[in-house]
Every structure is written in structure tokens, then in C-alpha cells.
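agent> Task received from the user: take the single chain below, predict its 3D structure, and emit C-alpha cells. No templates, no multimer pairing.
agent> Plan: (1) validate residues, (2) run structure prediction, (3) serialize to C-alpha cells, (4) report one or two observations.
agent> Step 1 OK, no nonstandard residues flagged.
tool_call: predict_structure(input=
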Amino acid sequence: MHDGSGRIVVQNLSKQFGPVAAVQNLSFTVEPGSVTGFLGPNGSGKTTTLRMLLGLVAPSAGSATINGNRYQQLGNPARIVGSVLDSGSLHSRRSARNHLRIYAAAIGVADSRVEETIGLVGLSPAIDRKVGGFSLGMRQRLSLATALLGDPQVLVLDEPANGLDPEGIAWLRQFLRGMAAQGRTVLISSHLLAEVEQTIDQVVIVSHGVTRYYGSVEHLRQNQQSRVLVQSADNTALAQVLQQSGYPQVTPTQDGRVAVSGATTQQVGDIAAGATIAVYGMQEEQVDLEQLFFQLTNPQYTGMPPQQPQRGWAQPQQPPQQQPGQPPWGGQR
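)
tool_result: status=success, residues=333
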């Protein structure tokens, strides 16, 4: 049982690579005893953020701390933080046992810990096999065993479910929940919400280096809304009149329709009729959690309710010019 320390605090974190803003003003907290999902599409700034947290990249602004200290200030980091950023860095000609022994010696833990961690991740039958013959899922498990060698309070895992089959994902879910139940702090990244939805307690969703949502998964579920898909004679005019009528969450769809959140087909139909805009078809659908995630991370998404950025729906920090993906009819975030 761990003592409940290991709080991760990311405060106003930014990283600029030349003209590219990889991360912009991120702030969130990961509490001990919980699993936090750090989610976003590929290229959204997740790995850069984790690398700043682990002292591998210097931030341009802001801070990322563990137990109130930057990673470089931790006395024996491997005893406090276990991390997996790249399972492809394993030496293909070494056995799993020898790989772990090398790391155990480097951080000053006994060889007996090798047997313990390999058992924790379910790789005991393959402990003497060369890593070059491992599947991607087995490599993920071996990387996780490496991160656990120091019995750390904090686990930071980048795409840990990558390469795992459904049975492996179910095992990972149970394993990470068990780590959190011991009082550890668990932060995992993924580009798929469905992959980690049943594992995490809270979620940080980022896109283009900007926080789109930060809060509990349950709160995210409560904000699921139905939406109406409309095919009209003039989508731009329809979007304008809908926004003027109190429905600001209007977005174009890839198939040429307009998606209206928080409205019914009757409400949309009445508004369109009042504006003498012909409607050729409407379809009402319930937005599930995965769809909501894609809306949040899609550059065209413009429907984030204006709440405080500390928790809940985040207000992106954007340059003053037109925001990325803003629809041509001028919908506001």
C-alpha cells in the first residue's frame, strides 16, 4: 500500500518548436488513487507533454511537477516514477530476464524484483526468450514490467494498450485499476477514448496542443446530447438562423449536412420554416461518448459550452485571428 503521495500538477505548460506551438497553456492535476486518461488524436501534443513531465523536454513556459518537484529534482526518479514512452527501445537480442536485470542494477533494486515484475505483467513463461521474438503486445508488457521495477508511486504510460488484443486490454484495465486502488497515481495517454473509457476516472482531452476538456468521465457522459442532422437548401443561412435562435452548437458534417446539438427535429424544422429555408431531410441521433470525443478533437467542432477552464469544458487559448476550423458562417466557440 502506498502513502498517497505522487500528485502530478501541470500548470500553464507550453512548448514551442520554432514556429510550431506543440503545447499551449495546459493545466491539469492527477491525484493519487486514480487513473487519468490523457487523450487526443495523434499529433495533439500528448507525448510532448509527457516528455516535459519526465524531464526529457524543457518547457517553453509553465511547469510540470511530481510531488511538488520537477522530475530532475527527484532523488531517485525510478523509485518514484515508472514510465513507458516507447516499447520499441528494447534490445532485440537480450532475453526479458537480462533486460530487466540491467535496469534493476541501474536503479539499485535486487534481482528478485525482476521475477516479481515479470509475474505482475504475465510474462513469466517468456522470461528467458529473446525480446526480438516478442509480439508488440508482449513488448508492451515487458516495458510495463521495466517501469514497475522500482515499485514506483507514479505510473506514466504512453499508449499502453497499443498492440494488445482484447484479452490484453481487459487485463491492462484490471491491472491499472489495481495500481490505483493501492494509492498510486496513474496517467495514461491514448488516441482512442473507447480504449480506456472503462479504465479511467478522469480525462484530459487535448487537440492541437490545447485543452478541450478536463474533468470526470461521468461529467463528460452527462454532457452527451442528441443532435439533429439536417440537409437543407442553404446550410449557411440555416446555421446563422439557428445560432440567432439560441442554438450555437452548429457544425458542418463531411457529407454536406449540418449537425445541430441540443435541439429536436421539431425545433429545427420550425426555425427553418420560419426562415423559409427548404429542408430535404432531418435525422435525430444520440451522440455517444466516442462521438463526443471526436467532436471535441475535430478542428470543425465549435460547440464547447463556455465554462471555467480549470475543470469541465476548457476554453482554448487561441491567437486572435480566426480560430482553426471555424465554420464559414462565423459560428463562435
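agent> Step 4: summary for the user.
The two ends are 45 Å apart (CA to CA).
agent> Done.
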